Amino acid sequence: MIIVMRPGASQEELAAVEAAVRETALEPHVIYGTERKVVAATGDERGVSPGTFELLSGVEKVMPVLAPYKLASVETRPGRTVVRPAPRPGVGPFAAAWGAREVVVIAGPCTVEGREQVVETARAVRAAGAVALRGGAFKPRTNPYSFQGLMEEGLEYMAEARAATGLPVVTEVLSAADVKLVAGYADVLQIGARNMQNYLLLRAVGEINRPVLLKRGMSATLDELLFAAEYVLMQGNPDVILCERGIRTFERHARNTLSLAAVPALKARTHLPVIVDPSHGTGHSYLVAPMALAAVAAGADGLMLEVAPDPRRALVDGGQTLDFCQFEELMRGISAVARAVGRGLALPAGGGADAPDREKTGDG
Amino acid sequence: MIIVMRPGASQEELAAVEAAVRETALEPHVIYGTERKVVAATGDERGVSPGTFELLSGVEKVMPVLAPYKLASVETRPGRTVVRPAPRPGVGPFAAAWGAREVVVIAGPCTVEGREQVVETARAVRAAGAVALRGGAFKPRTNPYSFQGLMEEGLEYMAEARAATGLPVVTEVLSAADVKLVAGYADVLQIGARNMQNYLLLRAVGEINRPVLLKRGMSATLDELLFAAEYVLMQGNPDVILCERGIRTFERHARNTLSLAAVPALKARTHLPVIVDPSHGTGHSYLVAPMALAAVAAGADGLMLEVAPDPRRALVDGGQTLDFCQFEELMRGISAVARAVGRGLALPAGGGADAPDREKTGDG
Amino acid sequence: MIIVMRPGASQEELAAVEAAVRETALEPHVIYGTERKVVAATGDERGVSPGTFELLSGVEKVMPVLAPYKLASVETRPGRTVVRPAPRPGVGPFAAAWGAREVVVIAGPCTVEGREQVVETARAVRAAGAVALRGGAFKPRTNPYSFQGLMEEGLEYMAEARAATGLPVVTEVLSAADVKLVAGYADVLQIGARNMQNYLLLRAVGEINRPVLLKRGMSATLDELLFAAEYVLMQGNPDVILCERGIRTFERHARNTLSLAAVPALKARTHLPVIVDPSHGTGHSYLVAPMALAAVAAGADGLMLEVAPDPRRALVDGGQTLDFCQFEELMRGISAVARAVGRGLALPAGGGADAPDREKTGDG
Amino acid sequence: MIIVMRPGASQEELAAVEAAVRETALEPHVIYGTERKVVAATGDERGVSPGTFELLSGVEKVMPVLAPYKLASVETRPGRTVVRPAPRPGVGPFAAAWGAREVVVIAGPCTVEGREQVVETARAVRAAGAVALRGGAFKPRTNPYSFQGLMEEGLEYMAEARAATGLPVVTEVLSAADVKLVAGYADVLQIGARNMQNYLLLRAVGEINRPVLLKRGMSATLDELLFAAEYVLMQGNPDVILCERGIRTFERHARNTLSLAAVPALKARTHLPVIVDPSHGTGHSYLVAPMALAAVAAGADGLMLEVAPDPRRALVDGGQTLDFCQFEELMRGISAVARAVGRGLALPAGGGADAPDREKTGDG
């Protein structure tokens, strides 16, 4: 931690800062500059609040030096984490592996509205090359008068869709109390943007044996996202996938500002895989495809896309949802861009959009 | 809802939009402008997603007309809501009444660290004129390595401080599962900024009989804040206090940007009381006093301030905490500004254990 | 400047950084922490770009220590600058003095639309206690199809209004080429938010003998605002008034987010006076009065307010303009809040809103 | 324009709104909804300020319907504009054509520092496949103590580099007074982000016969960017290239937040070409390459990249500048991604002095 003294700070003030640094078990080193004295406090500063020194007389500002998370940091863990959902009884190993060479596409409806809708969508997205199925059963809705999801019934339909297609299920869990229930059906537990700092929920998903897809909060910095991941990792669950889904800015042409530079910036800081959700990240279907391609070009390990049979009739977020045709076309583009940046597209067991004989597979 | 058609949209596209409007039980009215056709859809649009129409062929954009919350709206409820914590056995009626003429000051430590700290602080802030005591027992901490609060032990110390001073206790609850426990000790349940969109928690506090202090999320619009209030009101709890506590912007001189125009803007939209937290809203103690005074001048119904015996030794947020002297001086300023804008300062009730002659003091 | 090395940076990398620091005429000091090596570079870092070190092998990040402006800094100049417009031939000394104890109110129409409008407004605002007259003759308009101002004709009307009321004229100058022309009429030259980083213009107003009212850019940090002031000061013009006028954020209930914490934050960094423009800062007349009062409570040295005879017919920004009645009432509030925070309201020579015999004065 | 009345607005208030609409030459149409009355005002609303109606009694809000720019709009001009710099005497036709099928890369130093630096860089970027040369001679610097550019001397070096390589020169002009001077040397005039709303400058470049590269302001909406373009187009200059270069948000890992969704969003609104500057858009060289690739994938018509012989010694913005090796590698990536999205990379013309066998190279 670097403590910058005000110009003209006295020797007594300096001595008091040094003493305060020693009290926190850090070691003070004084540097006498031409205009300022600076105290460098060395040691593990992670448990020490900058506020401790900010209020001392003569202190101008305090600047932390270390990234404050540990387990999520590239410094702690060499190499990159690859996250794989565990096989389910009766559903052979899944093709999805986030953080490996191949780009992984999760697709499905924003919200599960019925058995037919989700099974039909699962088949269609699998046929086009998706390797995981998304769908919301518990929905956090800003508007209390909006549809709030089918809850457990929705989870059952997702499980049926998994049985029909072999795709692992990615779905959101809203509270610590629901983690066990949702984990009974889901292969990957999603933590939504609004819950990124729901620390009780983060701890709860850290205690179970399921990969966690952690969405960046609407106004979260990368440090805050990595802190949230740290909460999960600290409980012993090493399988966290980070997801950029747009931040809130002054822009009005899109629902959020998709910050794709977060992808390479995160990958420079953490060994965890990083994916992008261009559906929520833009909120308009005409922006989804270009931003999906851009995300892959920027180095994303995967995408999460909203696809439904008839987006115009979707109860939730229809405006940002692709239909089957649009999705199929987009998958061809994703595959081409993934190859252009030296990666491929993870394909469903038995083939996908690129596989010449994908149409022969039993369930796709 | 106003549906703007693209220039050159065909009669067929227009007819399809009209049909879609009728399907949602709204009534379409077509206006033929010089450059655009516009469909005004009248009726209760609150349950209808703009996305329903956005994807229709020929539609350029969709603009909602109605504020989408009802119970929180000034239109629904004439007059202003006054929120009063219920008396406790053995603790006479509380002086705090948010939304009345007097400005209500809540003060206390960011985090409860021990019995002595909280009781001493309670006595000091009461002596200076605060009418409610704040203190965190369950702390949502960004950094998982930071102190997370004393939990139930902290609540017990708060209750002791209430017994000693007659001040009602305002404290945060982090999850639906804890609501009953916290409500056993607290007179006002605080929902923190990070939980403003934790809808399960909002519903849970809506089901019990305690006022709710709802902090604005770091990147929440006023509509979203009022939606969050609506979740509580819908469950039957009418006592919600809204709190502006700073939003996240590009500014770096303060922890957040305290948006004081939110105070009059909220009061124009809702009958609920609106208070301001300049401690979290700025993050620096030297900014707290000017922004506290500014909040009162802007029409806030109250303030929430962090005060501790020795801010430099606080485990959490010391940099934004006032000491007793600073708080006492600030209270004099608050009282003067409150009078200047035609309001007064709510004063602690006469029954406080350690302030027998409080009523003699001018403004607290 | 503090240069933080990556963990595991080699001795060679460290030596290269030390050499690079010496090349810039700064002095390197190495601190060996438990996890990182840090190089403190002492000396005048203002001319040295952090980028110089950022690209060196083994460097993680570079943190400047010094505020990069000098002349604008409180460190350079003890006391506070008081800015007074010079007397005009025939117009006795002006009452406006920004940075003194009294709060200074500038008022007038957004845009000069005609002789009668501006003279009538000048009389009215003077009668209510304003001590300076604003009015735009050269208007920077986002929309090219909007009214762009009367230009020199508008300046002439402003000069007539000054002659009629004794109020100094504050008006915007848009380009270096116009500085002399505008300075011929104006007593204070305003640099608008869009031009805060128009460095040629800043230099030009730095070279003449007129106070400069410098508005904060819509997305400018305080450092950037102070840099802009520095451009003016460097040319020898010491009379700069800073103006907070709202920043651009995600908020939608107001045109901008008025960041009142900028007032005390600026006053802690600079000796220059700081005023607030709540008209542009909010964009809605119902928000202007509460934010004007809040600005005074936050310590602003003055206000800039839009007032017009019939705001509904204003060609520009009518929605945020007060009528004479609203302004008069607001001035009473401003006076009360100014007194509550230990300041007064600067009054026009001969009286103002507070002066019992103000109505006797010849011109208002 | 849609004027929403408050609930309970009277017939008199409604009639006054209708009258006010007619006064502006728009035509009012009243729609009676269940909760609100709405007045749709049809006609060309572009010259009418919403503020005109906002202050009328009984009005709740006013929502414009039309995009307020005309010449820049896709509605006005079918097809897409292709911008080509005019040939120079002695320098054959340029390969750069923004808005055509091929992706156009502009590269060069942030700031011209000397003859050798710029000529060497021009040769290197041309060899790697760039088709235009950038370089700043007039620099707008936030910090007044920073290097401000070589001015006309810098322009001369740029012209020499053009002569040596056949690359057209793209360089910034800071003021209307300099437009003729700079246009004497430059093939494309750049308007920087800080000047996007310098309307005098926009008009001045609109009056001459040179393509204009218009950078988006740091906090400009897309509408504001298109308004700025409209200023140029209105003067008769049809050749405007729009450039996304990052916006200011709360993010701190990058200098700006590069908003790539602006690319497809702009292309849906305007016929003008859209390029991206990932150097300023990120501020860190490690983020430039991924964001350059992402921009192409998102549909950008070109890129603007900072390249210098030794970025560590650059006087300006070294931290975001690529060296020749990094640029060459990036160009291979850009070419691959451009092909993946169905486009190619524009290649330098055969006439370049030092690249006689350029056409043999694969993609550069």
Walk me through this protein's architecture.
The structure is a homotetramer of 364-residue chains. Chain A is an alpha/beta fold. Chain A folds into 2 domains: 2-63, Alpha-Beta Plaits, CATH 3.30.70; 104-360, Aldolase class I (TIM Barrel), CATH 3.20.20.70. The first copy, chain A, contains 11 helices and 12 strands. In chain A, the strands form 2 sheets. In chain A, strands 5-6-7-8-9-10-11-12 form an 8-stranded parallel β-barrel, surrounded by 7 helices. Chain A has a 4-stranded antiparallel β-sheet with strand order 2-3-1-4. In chain A, helix 7 (222-234) links the parallel strand 9 (212-215) and strand 10. In chain A, helix 3 (115-128) runs parallel beside helix 11 (324-340), helix 6 crosses helix 7 (222-234) and helix 10 runs parallel beside helix 11. The model of chain A is unreliable at 352-364 (pLDDT under 50).
